[in-house]
Write a structure and sequence with these properties.
single chain, mainly beta, Neuraminidase, 5-stranded antiparallel sheet
Length: about 300
């Protein structure tokens, strides 16, 4: 009986081992079955009524309901509305147009707009721009009314340091890129948590080895970041102890021309970005499946 029990145990362990092995294999396959950009997807130019092509628009960002668009155009923040199923001609935002403003990003709840500006700091002479390009924000009051722009305090903005491309998650985590900041001589991507009444210390994101990283777009649930590096667009997935090494997006996007300013629509179905010599903002359908448990569900 002892030998029979041993053989039964051995057989059971072998079967369980096979099942676990195949589950692991199928799980791994499942992560890469559907590419982020399908083979038949083709980027096209995003257009609005009354806007000529080519144009200087960049860095689009949509309200939660997808019916209001914020974008950058000739160093101004502009706003476009969806009217009868079409995008109306953008108009300059009430808080923009005097100083150089760009890289606007509306928070996932639609209440706060971040952007980059060279406008003078409070308490400084208001007749000339500051030397640095840094991060600012304005809060929605009601309708099309906004508060006066406010400068983000340290440790986000630092004296003498330029910051660009803000993007924010549902929990308030802010991503941006900056050159010459602590921990990185070149351009690096940074991740900083909102602690309820102030920001934590920004942390450098090593998303593509030691290479420079630009324009990190963070998903609302923090499950992934799409960024620019080596003139290409990459995607990095959030995991338990950080972020995966960036995976280059397919050749429909990375076609040899320089890409930047990635942004994914609130429904997660469309990637917008800018490309060298393109006549405007480009857009292409995407399918992004989380690889790991999202940050929000922790």
């Amino acid at each position: 009986m002892t030998n029979i029990h041993f053989l039964y145990w051995l057989l059971r362990e072998a079967v369980l081992g096979v099942i676990i092995t195949w589950c692991t294999i199928f799980s791994s396959f499942g992560q890469s079955v559907r590419p982020v950009i399908s083979d038949n997807a083709k980027p096209v130019v995003f257009v609005q009524a009354g806007v000529p092509v080519p144009n200087d628009e960049s860095a689009p960002s949509f309200s939660p309901d997808g019916k209001t668009l914020f974008l950058s155009d000739s160093d101004r923040i502009c706003i476009s509305k969806m009217v009868n199923g079409k995008w109306a001609k953008p108009t300059v935002a009430p808080f923009s147009g005097h100083w150089k403003d760009w890289d606007s990003f509306i928070s996932p709840d639609g209440k706060r707009l971040f952007f980059v500006s060279n406008r003078p700091l409070e308490g400084m002479p208001q007749d000339k721009p500051q030397k640095n390009n840094q991060l600012w924000y304005t809060d929605r009051l009601s309708g099309d009314r906004w508060t006066a722009p406010r400068h983000l305090a340290a440790p986000v903005n630092l004296n003498g340091i330029n910051d660009y491309a803000p993007a924010v998650s549902k929990s308030g985590t802010l991503c941006f890129c900056s050159r010459g900041r602590v921990g990185k001589k070149g351009m690096g991507a940074y991740y900083v948590k909102w602690l309820g009444d102030h920001y934590d210390t920004p942390k450098l994101l090593a998303l593509n080895g030691d290479n420079d990283v630009y324009d990190p777009f963070i998903a609302p649930d923090e499950s992934y970041i799409i960024f620019s590096s080596d003139h290409c667009l990459y995607i990095s997935y959030h995991k338990e102890n950080g972020w995966t090494t960036g995976e280059k997006l397919s050749e429909q996007v990375n076609n040899g021309k320089s890409n930047n300013s990635p942004y994914v629509s609130p429904d997660g179905k469309m990637l917008y970005y800018s490309q060298e010599d393109a006549p405007g903002i480009l857009m292409v359908p995407v399918n992004i499946e989380p690889r790991f448990k999202s940050q929000e569900s922790r």
